[in-house]
Design a protein that fits this description.
Elements (H helix, E strand, L loop, with lengths): L3 E2 L4 E2 L31 E4 L8 E2 H10 L15 E3 L1 H8 L2 E3 L7 E3 H10 L1 H71 L4 H38 L6
Antiparallel strand pairs: 1-2, 3-4, 3-5, 6-7
Helix pairs in contact: 4-5
Length: about 240
């Protein structure tokens, strides 16, 4: 865990952790923890006792949970006796380290935290990651919009089909009505009948014919609408 001191602009030593590959040059064995064998991270020792062995705070704390003895000399050691080893901390602060992003920067360990905030390699990597996230988000939005448009087109197609079926049914009814009128006209023509009745029948036939023609025009319009919707659809429409 890295913690940046807001006033000094550097990592606090208690939170620093460093890998061997990040260190420039050799590291003295005296700067390594005998438990984890890595460079000390927050080095501590048992204050007020003859045992002066140093360990990483995290390493020795875990050991003392199981047995309150120094792992090296077996002398009694309790967690509340642990004190920061300022001497070792100062030596670790002088270590020359590389940037974790391998941008070419080299400096003292406490300075690496401030560098990492403005490391060009890290900033570029994060910018690329953000760009990829934005592209993925835009693609998802595009797919959602396309799916919505396709759903709307399919809904319009279904409604058009329903209306065309209704119009076809209505046209069939009107055609039957016109046929009945024609039959009635023939029957009346064969027998003497008042002229007014014949005129009424002719008017009814004319209305039925006009209704049929109007229905056919509406059907034609819906066919054209269906064709245009199919041309705009994202995929082939059946």
């Amino acid at each position: 865990l890295k913690v940046v001191d807001g006033t000094a602009g550097r990592l606090t030593l208690a939170a620093m952790s460093i890998a061997d590959e990040d260190i420039v040059g050799e590291v003295s064995p005296s700067l390594r923890c005998s438990i984890c064998h890595g460079v000390f991270c927050d080095p501590v020792f048992c204050g007020g006792t003859p045992c002066q062995h140093a360990f990483c705070r995290g390493c020795i704390t875990n050991v003392l949970r199981a047995r309150e003895k120094c792992p090296l000399c077996r002398k009694r050691m309790r967690p509340e006796q642990l004190r920061p080893n300022l001497t070792i901390s100062s030596l670790i602060e002088e270590l020359q380290v590389r940037c974790a992003e391998r941008c070419g920067w080299v400096g003292r360990l406490p300075q690496r935290g401030a560098h990492e905030l403005e490391c060009p390699v890290r900033l570029l990597r994060e910018a690329r990651a953000e760009l990829l996230r934005e592209k993925a988000s835009a693609r998802q939005a595009e797919l959602a919009a396309e799916q919505q448009r396709k759903s709307l087109v399919e809904a319009h197609m279904a409604e058009t089909s329903r209306l065309m079926a209704l119009l076809a049914q209505e046209r069939s009814v009107r055609e039957r009505l016109a046929s009945d009128v024609r039959g009635l006209k023939r029957a009346l023509a064969e027998q003497p009948c008042p002229a007014q009745l014949l005129t009424a029948v002719e008017k009814a036939e004319a209305r039925a014919t006009r209704a049929r023609d109007e229905a056919e025009q509406v059907v034609g319009i819906f066919k054209e609408v269906r064709k245009r919707l199919a041309e705009r659809a994202p995929g082939p429409m059946q």
